[in-house]
Amino acid sequence: MMQNKKLGLISLGCDKNRVDSERILAVASKHFTITSSVTDAQIIVVNTCAFLESARKEAIDTIFEINELKQTGKLEKIIVCGCLPQKFIQEIFEEFVEVDAFLGINDYDLLFEAVKLCYEGKRVNFVNKNEFLLEKNRVLTTPCHYYYLKIADGCNNKCTYCLIPSIRGKYRSQKIEDLISEVKNLGQVNELILVAQDVTRYGIDLYGEPQIVKLIKELSALDEVNSIRILYAYPDMITNELIEEIKNNDKVLKYLDIPLQHASNPILKLMNRKGSFESYLALVNKLKSEIPQIALRSTFIAGFPRETEEDFNNLLEFVKKAKFFNCGFFAYSREEGTPAYKLAGQIEEKVKEERVKKLYNVQRQISRKNLKSFVGKTIKVLCDGVDYENQSFYGRAYFNAPEIDGRVYITSNDCINQGEYYEVLITNSNDYDLFGTVVG
Ligand code: SF4
To answer: Of all atoms in ligand 1, which is nearest to the CA of residue 234?
Structure first.
């Protein structure tokens, strides 16, 4: 009977959460009929993010929005999973009576049991009922030519602004053999994207020392894997061995995401980040000299408590000097329960926003100039699909990660296929995107 119930899922937050959502779908598909239409669903699972105030607001707004479908549509049960209940179940269980069941980050295996209880008229709190998640399978939600591989969960770093360790717990790597069999099960992939809160610490908890290079070697030895992209590398753990591997392994894309968060030394200290303006710049320069074509991405927080004009100018200076291919900038979000919450010298919202804007203005010029240098060149592009609004195909070069970086918009006289590589002659560029024509 439950098999006939249609279940839909809304995944919020980052790509690591997306992997969790794909496991939830694997659990759900054993018991329910999966639908991609929320208006058609009788059960909706919302997998939430709670890292920032804005993410919690998005989760709560989503719950209220879908609750309307209980009155007007077919929706019967709302299940809320993931970081929000994991961290805030005490606060939300009584408040959000619209929600029929809550599950934490390790409790997805219990989805069917939770839904059954809901249909018996109960409200369910299964947060922390399980110690770890047993489900190993995933139902992919990305186009089938790329997918994420979450190599670890949790974080042992203690950045003073960050709630993640208190939500996701200590750093826990997946065993190499489990990751290999996960990729074999998921099958052929053009781009395998390695993610974790910090990929560079991979393996320390299991094997006593970092094993990210060993993991990359083993993954790239698989016939199923065409290329590997590395996201979320913590700067102080980018070893010479890792740099050599990125440089010499043909399957590893010459791309590295290193979230640096700031570059002014007093602020890095207050953030409890290891490293300094000088060491970060040295790292960026080293990566560029070892791997000349490398595309570096980073993220930064503006308006951290006590950030003076001088600190901010240091950060601006750093961004100008480092010349990243891609960058994300965020206004500091004051999160209760973090050490930075209590710091005196919080910065006004307006000032934070202005600083973010200034950073984007600098980066926009860097990006525009950089992308212009590709005009007239032919580059390899992986086609991601059709952009109906722009009446164009679009794809990515090695320097574009999906969803967070720019795109290459492609025209072609012939039909081209999603998931295939094309040689594209770049004819135009703007601040963040390239435009070109298939030539081969
Ligand atoms: S490295 Fe720092 S910012 Fe990133 S998840 Fe860990 S504690 Fe949070």
So the answer is: 1
